[in-house]
Design a protein that fits this description.
This protein has 805 residues and is α/β, with parallel strands linked by helices. It contains 32 helices and 13 strands. A hairpin with a 5-residue loop joins β2 and β3.
Length: 805
């Protein structure tokens, strides 16, 4: 392809592309230097580390094994302390607690660990940039390749997510690589191309479980190739020429079989050719985070008991077992995690016939078709257990997931969520280039049609066929996104950007200075005033894009294009579209710069650690709140170290009183603490609220504040009121009325409801400031707090406006 007329070759050369991509990687890394871990990063990095070190796949199997291994690879060469595999968090596959302890609880260099993992992930973004440049260069020449590359490196979504230690960039990379390698294989069938395509597709299936979308994409591409009527060159050096469609179909079927076998082999290889997800598991001790029955949507064992025609005596006996084990069937989410309990019930309460009937119901296939397919693969052991478990996890949470969109809360998603995020989080200058590219394609088809004495649709079909994978992949991906229920982040849209940028390379038709020609490659350049004007608009759009992106440094996760302003974005989108826990360093700098007086409070969303960044604030209700000590913590310590460990904990939390201590059956010392009255009360001061915490999508009070929540809050306020008093006698008298475990539950609900009522009040006023747009700043007086926590709230709905998750 020609480099583009008057454009200096040095500006469109491979060396120039390499320099741009190196600068792109450095720029991404620089933008993350003052960004804390996002919500997914600690767990993803920790999981990949355990895959390497322990050959155990219990942690986050729903994320891609390959990218998790890659991001953890540099940490294998560091001297990092890891929690004991005898810890409860490991045994229960609690990746949140385990990753937090690894990063922030064992004196490891958390910032260094995060930087090294991000550096590896950033290289995947560079490789994707190479693919964008090469494909666009192949289609539209060197100038077209450079246009596509610049659109890619100056895209805020790519800059925000490209170097994060998550699986999104690997997914985008392998989707584009898979369709390109597959298309090349369909054009000329050779053993080398088939093997490369199969290996790349294996990488896709190991990157993200949405990889199954490649199947319908491949079917469409194969159908289009057969319909084209072009002969197929096959064999070494294209020595065979297959002209009949039936023979081509047979050749493609053979290639598909090779793909299936190789993809399965690659998946098994990354799981060590071992079926079980656990390297060393003790029955009843090691377990996945959620049970198979729960993920596959099977009826809860608690409800199955009701189908056994129990006698009154049997019901009483079962209830006694529940009470002895402190199990409330109405509060148990995952009934299949309590199978030891049901084993006891079968042995002591049920008849042999009832026990057999119960076992049949428990082992029955799940009701939904998708879950049945997953269950079949699991039972037949067709793929590694952890891999199939990951699909079960994805299937479960694809059914319903809490999300926020333009002031609304939902669990089933909105069809316009991703089109809307694309509209407001894609730079306006990119839309300008897209329009120019479409106009260029139409103009080019018209010119070529005249040259060939054909209507414009004829060259249009030829061009569409040449770029077909770049249309089919986004089409299927868009269809899946629009119909999904996981509307939690714009990052899910990343795989559609790379094909879009490649297609935008057709805008090379417009740049001024090009002379009309046909160099034999099919390239036709435009002339005339209109073409020169379009060329000027193109380069002006590219310059505006670069200027805007450079001016938004380093807050690319919180980027919005002006249709929605970043300062107002919290009213439209949250979570990974805006606030993913990334701005703890920015918060610390803000507090230091403003030298705030009076109390400072923080409600943080994310898996970073405010303690690690030494945030001088009192922590209030947060999600997941690893640094937040609950109002009445009850914990056990080994007897030999109990006194020293308790003294250390009290020194770290001087705002707590020791309520009591006792020894359990295993000779562990159990302690109960209670927050002091002054610390229990919320007063006027500066409140830093993560944007995601402001919207009611996390925690116990899900959805808008309503009459039922208000009644529960007022009831708990009355219960807790004596504990807020400074009078010790009143506090102790109140505490003696209920067991401490009951008080712990009451205080937990009171804390969550109080925060939910506070945010219901704050949503009605504008924040006073913000920290990088993701953390909102409210300066509240004592009178404000009285109105927020005790004043009347108008417009309450009588019942919750959402079903329970």
């Amino acid at each position: 392809m020609s480099s583009g007329g008057c454009w200096p070759r040095v500006l469109t050369s491979a060396q120039a592309a390499g320099i741009i991509l190196l600068a792109f990687w450095l720029f991404m890394m620089a933008s993350l230097l003052e960004k804390s871990a996002t919500a997914d990063e600690p767990g993803d990095i920790m999981s990949g580390y355990t895959y390497w070190r322990f050959h155990d796949y219990r942690m986050i199997p729903e994320h891609g094994n390959l990218p998790l291994r890659l991001m953890a690879l540099p940490l294998l060469f560091g001297n990092y302390h890891f929690p004991s595999t005898a810890d409860e968090a490991w045994l229960k596959s609690d990746q949140g607690t385990l990753s937090y302890n690894w990063f922030y609880g064992m004196n490891n260099d958390a910032a260094g660990m995060l930087f090294r993992s991000r550096a590896i992930s950033g290289l995947l973004a560079v490789v994707l940039g190479v693919l964008v440049w090469l494909w666009a260069r192949q289609l539209f020449g060197s100038v077209g390749g450079m246009i596509s590359l610049l659109l890619y490196v100056f895209n805020p979504t790519i800059l925000a997510n490209g170097a994060l230690a998550t699986t999104d960039m690997a997914c985008s990379l392998f989707f584009l690589a898979s369709v390109w390698s597959l298309w090349a294989t369909l054009e000329r069938l050779s053993l080398r191309r088939v093997l490369v395509s199969a290996l790349v597709m294996g990488g896709l299936f190991l990157s993200k479980l949405s990889a199954v979308l490649i199947v319908p994409v491949a079917l469409v591409l194969v159908a289009a190739r057969l319909m084209s009527g072009q002969p197929l060159l096959a064999g070494p050096g294209g020595c065979w020429k297959l002209e009949r469609r039936s023979r081509q179909a047979m050749a493609f079927a053979a290639a598909a079989a090779v793909h299936v076998v190789m993809v399965a082999a690659v998946v098994w290889a990354f799981y060590g050719f071992r079926y079980t997800m656990f390297a060393q598991a003790v029955p009843g001790r090691d377990r996945p985070l959620n049970s198979w029955g729960y993920l596959l949507g099977k009826p809860s064992p608690f409800t199955l008991l009701d189908k056994l025609n129990l006698s009154a005596a049997q019901t009483v006996g079962i209830n006694k077992i529940f009470q002895a084990q402190q199990v409330d069937p109405l509060k148990v989410t995952d009934g299949y995690s309590n199978m030891e309990l049901f084993q006891t019930i079968k042995q002591t309460v049920l008849t042999s016939g009832q026990a057999q009937e119960f076992d049949v119901m428990v082992s029955a296939p799940p009701p939904a078709f998708g879950a049945r397919m997953i269950d079949f693969i699991h039972r037949c052991r067709l793929l590694p257990e952890a891999y199939v478990y990951g699909y079960a996890n994805v299937w479960k949470y694809a059914q319903a997931r809490s999300a926020f969109f333009n002031g609304k809360i939902g669990i089933y998603g909105w069809k316009w969520f991703f089109p809307y995020t694309f509209l407001v989080k894609t730079p306006l200058s990119v839309f300008s280039v897209m329009a120019l590219a479409l106009a260029a394609a139409a103009a080019k088809w018209r010119v070529e049609g005249k040259r060939l004495c054909r209507p414009p649709w004829y060259p249009g079909l030829r061009a569409l066929y040449a770029t077909l994978p770049l249309w089919v992949l986004p089409a299927f991906y868009w269809a899946t996104l629009i119909s999904s229920h996981s509307d939690v982040g714009h990052r899910y849209i990343m795989p559609v950007y790379a094909p879009l940028f490649v297609l935008c390379g057709t805008a090379v038709y417009w740049p001024s200075g090009l002379r009309k020609r046909d160099d034999g490659s099919g390239t036709v350049a435009a002339t005339g005033k209109a073409a020169r004007l379009a060329g000027l608009v193109l380069w002006a759009s590219m310059l505006l894009l670069a200027a805007e992106v450079l001016g938004r440094f380093p807050n690319y996760l919180a980027y919005f294009n002006g249709i929605v302003t970043p300062a107002k974005a919290y009213r439209h989108l949250v979570d990974s579209s805006l606030d993913w826990g990334q701005d703890l360093p920015g918060l610390r700098h803000y507090i230091e710069k403003h030298r705030l007086g009076g109390p400072v409070y923080l409600s943080y969303f994310g898996n970073g650690s405010p303690d690690y960044y030494k945030i001088p604030a009192t922590y209030i209700y947060s999600s997941p709140g690893q640094d937040v000590l609950e109002l009445m913590p009850i914990f056990k310590l080994p007897a030999a170290k109990a006194n020293a460990m308790l003294a250390d904990r009290l020194s770290q939390h001087p705002d707590y009183d020791l309520l009591g201590r006792w020894v359990d059956d295993e000779e562990n010392v159990i302690y109960a603490l209670l927050k002091k009255p002054a610390a229990l009360r919320l007063t006027g001061g500066t409140y830093f609220i993560s944007a995601t915490m402001l919207q009611p999508v996390t925690g116990d009070s899900f959805g808008s504040w309503n009459a039922l929540y208000e009644a529960s809050y007022q009831r708990h306020c009355r219960m807790v009121k004596p504990l807020l008093q400074d009078n010790i006698e009143l506090r102790m008298a109140a505490l003696q009325k209920r067991p401490l475990r009951k008080w712990q539950e009451i205080l937990r609900l009171f804390d969550a409801e109080r925060f939910a009522r506070l945010t219901a009040y704050l949503r009605r006023r504008e924040p006073d400031d913000n920290v990088n747009f993701s953390i909102l700043v409210y300066k509240l007086t004592d009178a404000d707090m009285a109105r927020a926590l005790d004043g009347p709230l108008s417009g309450l709905s009588p019942v919750p406006d959402l079903p329970t998750l």
